[in-house]
Design brief:
Layout: H1 3-8, E1 16-19, H2 26-35, E2 39-42, E3 46-49, H3 55-62, E4 69-72, H4 75-87, E5 98-101, H5 104-112, H6 126-133, E6 142-148, H7 154-161, E7 165-176, H8 181-189, E8 195-198, H9 201-211, E9 224-227, H10 230-238, E10 245-246, H11 252-263
Parallel strand pairs: 1-2, 1-8, 4-5, 4-6, 6-7, 8-9, 9-10
Antiparallel strand pairs: 3-7
């Protein structure tokens, strides 16, 4: 059986899915969709760039030994933080406190770099991380949060309310990359897309911004919108989008499983 025949038999056979992740991450999801028999259209909306002003980040890195907790809420946060440590000549052994990660992929990147992760929540969102950390935190402890410039404030606010001293530093900025917007809009207008995947609230807001010059009445009526979790889904609704699919496990794999349940055919045994 040819590769094309194998793909055509997958649970997403005949479905055309738009993927709106960051340019550095979009191809992982594209490959998974194609492996499930679907046709993926990559519409990378985001670019991650290092902040121009790194003074606060460098100050935090210089004081790493004073933090009781180092909490990472994304793979990108890990990568940009460790890259900056390397750039200014600070080694991993400078991290003295315990490390927490919002999910297994973030934890895996930390493990690959030789860091032991003390806490991974069962719900891969900031609220789940807070619940998992709660009994291990003590008032007065110092917490470092290396994050994106647009990260939600729920986690630092809740940590501060528990009496912890929280330091937030921007390790990367998320900027819109709308070069493909006209082509993406044409595909949507010509009904060439069956579903759109959103993997974060920022992909939703950037999608809406990029599509604003092209959007029309009923332009998404034929499209199933799938979100990686309830926070992303709520952002989509707040931006006027109808959400058809929300993953119950807040991972790429969970999102694809939910998409198959709602949009694809019967599972033919293909592993996600």
């Amino acid at each position: 059986m040819s590769d094309a025949q194998v793909e055509s038999a997958g649970p997403l056979a005949g479905k055309r899915i738009m993927v709106t992740r960051a340019r550095s991450q979009v191809w992982e999801l594209v490959e998974k969709i194609e492996g499930l028999g679907g046709e993926a259209y990559a519409f990378p909306l985001l670019k991650m760039v290092a902040p121009e002003d790194k003074r606060h980040l460098d100050e935090a890195i210089a004081q790493l030994g004073k933090f009781d907790w180092l909490i990472f809420t994304s793979v990108n946060g890990v990568r940009f933080f460790l890259e900056r440590m390397n750039e200014i000549g600070v080694g991993i052994d400078a991290i003295k406190g315990q490390v927490a990660a919002v999910g297994p992929k973030t934890a895996a990147v930390l493990n690959d770099e030789g860091l032991e992760v003390a806490v991974i929540p069962s719900d891969y969102v900031a609220e789940g991380l807070l619940t998992s950390l709660h009994d291990r935190l003590s008032p007065g402890q110092r917490v470092l949060l290396p994050r994106a410039d647009i990260a939600r404030k729920a986690l630092p606010q809740e940590l501060a309310a528990l009496g912890l001293e929280v330091t937030e530093v921007d390790v990367y900025h998320t900027v819109i990359d709308g070069k493909q917007a006209p082509e993406a809009a044409r595909r949507l207008r010509d009904k060439e897309i069956d579903g759109i995947l959103f993997t974060s609230s920022s992909t939703v807001t950037h999608f809406v911004q990029a599509m604003a010059p092209f959007a029309g009445t009923g332009w998404l009526d034929q499209v199933q919108i799938a979100c990686i979790g309830p926070i992303t889904a709520e952002t989509a609704r707040q931006n006027g989008l109808t959400v058809h699919v929300t993953a119950t496990e807040y991972t790429v794999e969970g999102l694809l499983e939910a998409l198959i349940d709602n949009l694809g055919g019967k599972d033919n045994g293909t592993n996600i």
